[in-house]
Amino acid sequence: MTTSEYAERIVEMIKARPPKIKQDKLLYEIYVKLKVADGLRAVQQGRVHSHEQVREDMWKIIHSSNPSSHP
Fold it and tell me: Using an 8 Å Cβ cutoff, are 30 and 12 in contact?
């Protein structure tokens, strides 16, 4: 998503907000919605890892920094 597309989405979210929403809640909502959109886009682009792959990668990281540990 380009910067102008992000800006456009933010403006749409602000216009659609309830009239008396607190500023911090609005900013949090905007943040969460944009992050969810980023995640969905990553899935569509195939930028994901299986649970097993993440476990293997984490195991390698943990054990490379602590060679005396065992599974």
Answer: no
Q: What is the pTM of this model?
A: 0.59
Residue type, 36: V
pLDDT, tens digit, 9 for 90 and up, residues 15-41: 888 888 888 998 898 899 889 988 999
Instruction: For the chain, state the CA radius of gyration.
Output: 19
The answer to whether residue 69 scores a pLDDT higher than 70 is no
* φ/ψ of residue 47, rounded to 5: -90, 65
SS3 17: coil
Q: Alpha helix locations (H) across 1-71?
A: 3-15, 23-44, 51-65
